[in-house]
Structure formats: structure tokens, C-alpha cells
Amino acid sequence: MSWETITPPTPIDTFDSNLQRLRDSFETGKLDSVDYRLEQLRTLWFKFYDNLDNIYEAVTKDLHRPRFETELTEVLFVRDEFSTVIKNLRKWVKEEKVENPGGPFQFANPRIRPVPLGVVLVITPWNYPVMLNISPVIAAIAAGCPIVLKMSELSPHTSAVLGRIFKEALDPGIIQVVYGGVPETTALLTQHWDKIMYTGNGAVGRIIAQAAVKNLTPLALELGGKSPVFITSNCKSVMTAARRIVWGKFVNAGQICVAPDYILVAPEKEAELVACIKEVLQERYGSKRDAHHPDLSHIISKPHWKRIHNMIAQTKGDIQVGGLENADEDQKFIQPTIVSNVPDDDILMQDEIFGPIIPIIKPRTLGQQVDYVTRNHDTPLAMYIFSDDPKEVDWLQTRIRAGSVNINEVIEQVGLASLPLSGVGASGTGAYHGKFSFDVFTHKQAVMGQPTWPFFEYLMYYRYPPYSEYKM
Ligand code: NAD
């Protein structure tokens, strides 16, 4: 069934009136009330919770993803995000006093007031369609901003369920869901927003940034990139590294923004690593890894399937496990694939893989590996370091500017509401999750004041012209 049948595109000629409705609602000031924001968030949480079965079913239809995986990687995070925001919102909306240097400022009471930015546009992708849509909605409501949400057309079953949940749970004055593809997103981008948050690939990120420039609209760009994994000579348990990498790479068929994209392994550990990965794959998925496997997700669309298929067909590396055997275009399935001895100019080393393939690049020293990353794939969204030498870990962190770093573990940094999810450079700008979600749609207004007593005015007289009087 086509996405247009499941989520018919929202007519573009309704966009102006919908935006005006949200602006009018913002101007009533109802979102200024923290009680109102909390009531909306609680209602949304209960509606979300009541619909969990529908959500699991929809994600399985979109991605053939096992229910448990959706619970583990999306629903538990969303639950924590709701509880963190609901628990702390009264604290976050308070004015924050800042240091007073005294002197002429001694009565100024300088402080920062968090104020909502206004009506925001959020554009999301398909790979984690539950958390990537619910989290920005939580963020916007928490910050007091009405939101227009454009979900990805590539995960229509999940979009349809979430669209219904938002409609049933929330005041129509604070959210408008837009269904559609490129024409609808392009039309949305011609309107004037108080902030745009885009999650997706860097090529479209550049289109969004160009549209935002016209109105000087502030942007949060949550993009991707090639996230490296280092397994150094100081990694004590290559088997532990293999277990974690196999999990973090092959959940959701590798369609994860922070997925380990490629491995840089110490030359003396490479053979052990390949052997461990093979063993772990066998232990977890058995030897029949095909489209009917209940624990392996599928690729989201045929164009993405063809892109990944093409990479495997064209790689110059050695396919150690997986490959094109059992690849199924109708089912959009590719089995977990490990490729070793991958040269720098290989097709696997050009762009983010975003699929179930992990290349191990040709062996070299740690210094050469760092040079390779900084020269070719600078500022990745994430970096993973398997090493039991804290000095080495620290050195790698100072050499490579990554959005996040996880030591002896993969992808879990995204699940911690107290840590920001954020890229750097080409992997994005602007953070969210937990308190950062509140901040992303909040302006930090600088506030101070001065007394109007005649004596204070007398003290401040020195600053007024004519300056010549003070020059003697
Ligand atoms: P996608 O194709 O669903 O695109 C994302 C959104 O952009 C969709 O709503 C889509 O309708 C819209 N869009 C697509 N083409 C457009 C165009 N030409 N003009 C205007 N809008 C357009 O998703 P995707 O980009 O394939 O998502 C995968 C990418 O997202 C990967 O690079 C991944 O790393 C990144 N990602 C990043 C994060 C993060 O938090 N940093 C999270 C998830 C995914």
C-alpha cells in the first residue's frame, strides 16, 4: 500500500490557515501557563501508553522490526523523556539568577528568563519513527511553543497512529500534523517559522538551511555521518567489543543515526575480531538469516535497499559474513554483512552506510587511523572507543571532534535523557533530549532593571554627556 493511501498528503492550500490558527493560539498566552503545558504532556503520555500495541504493530509494518526492539530502543526512551520533562518542568521555567558584579549593577537583579521561541516547524525521518516524532513534540509543549510536525512519508503506518494520538490527546491550537513528501515540506519551508528543527540526512539539511536563511530562522539540524569504532591494542576483551558492536550495528538493520559505521582495529586484533563477530552472529541469529527471520529488521524502502545492495555488489573488500545471499528486493531484506580489508577509496567508505553492513578498514597504526578519520570523515555524530587505557581514550577524544563519545559501548548514549543528542560540524547543530529539549525551543532572555530613586539617578549621572565636564 502506498504512503499516500495510509497518510493522504495534507492539502498545501490549508497551510496558511493552519499556521495562523497556531499563531493565534500562541498569542492567547495559554501556553505561558506551566500547568497547561503539564496537563497537555500528561494527557499525551496516557494516550501514548494506551496505544502501545498499535504503535508496536505500526513500526513492525514499516520496518519489520521486532516488538521487543521497539520497546527497548524507542518506548523506554520516550517514557523517560516524558518523566524527566514532567518532573522538572516547573524548575526549568523559572528565571535563573546570574552573577552580579556590583558597582552600577548592584540593584540590577540580573537574571535569565526562559521564553518560548514561538511557532516551530519540526521535520523528521523514518528510522526511529516513535521517538523522533514524540520527543520534539514533548520539547515544544514543554517550552510553550505550538508545533507543526511533518513526519516522514517513508514510515506511514507509524505516522498514521501517531497523528491520531496527537489529534486525540492535544489541544488543536498547539499542534498541526502535516502528512506528505517533498512538495509539502518544500511548501512548509516557504512559511515564516520561529525555529525549524530538522532530523535527517545532510543533503536535505542543506536545503532546509538555505530556506531558513531567508527569514533568519534559527535552526536545529540533527544529521548523520560516518561514526567510527576504534578497537585499539589496549582493548582487553575483543569478544565484548564484538558482542556490543553486533548489537548496536544490526538493531533496526543498521538504520540508526549513531550506528557504528566502520571499524578501525589494531592490526594484531583484526583476525580475532572477525572470528568473534562471526561467532556472535551465529549465536544470536543462527545460520538462516533471511527475510523471515523474526529478529532482523528490514530496509525501509526499495531505493534504500538498492543503495545498500549496490554497496555490497561493488565493494573491493573481503566479505567475511553475509553479503548478497538471501538479499530480497520484495521484502527489502539484506542480511548482516561484515567486510574486511576495505580500502580507503571503497564505495563503503564514501557516505554514511545506514544499513546492515560494517566495513573493517585496512589495518594501520592508531596514529594513521586518527589521521584517516580527521582527513576523511571529520566531526562524526558519534565515536566509539574500545580500549582499557584511559590515557589513550582521552587522547582519541582530543584528536577527533565527535558529537558524542561512548567508551567500550555503542549507541546507548542516545537513550540517556540527561545527555544531549547533538552533532557537531557536518553532523549537525543544536541539541535535544531532557533539559536540552526544553532549551532547544526556548529563548534565554536577558533581564535586568534599575531603581528610579532620585539618589540612584544622581549616582548614575556620570555617564551622561557632555563628557567634557569629566575630562579635567
Ligand atoms: P527522510 O528521507 O525521511 O527525510 C527526512 C525528512 O525530510 C522527511 O520528513 C522528508 O519528507 C523530508 N525531505 C526529504 N527530502 C526532502 C527535500 N528534498 N526537501 C525537503 N524535505 C525533504 O529521512 P532520511 O534523511 O533518509 O533519514 C536518515 C538520515 O537521518 C541519516 O543520515 C541519519 O543519520 C539521520 N538521522 C539523524 C538523527 C539525529 O538525531 N542526528 C536521527 C535519525 C536519523
UniProtKB/TrEMBL annotation:
GO terms for biological process: aldehyde metabolic process. CDD domains: ALDH_F14-YMR110C (cd07135). The keyword Transferase does not apply. The active site is at E222, C257. Pfam families: Aldedh (PF00171). Belongs to the aldehyde dehydrogenase family. This is Aldehyde dehydrogenase. One of its GO terms (molecular function) is aldehyde dehydrogenase (NAD+) activity. Signal peptide: none annotated. GO terms for cellular component: cytoplasm. It comes from Yarrowia lipolytica (Candida lipolytica). Keywords: NAD, Oxidoreductase.
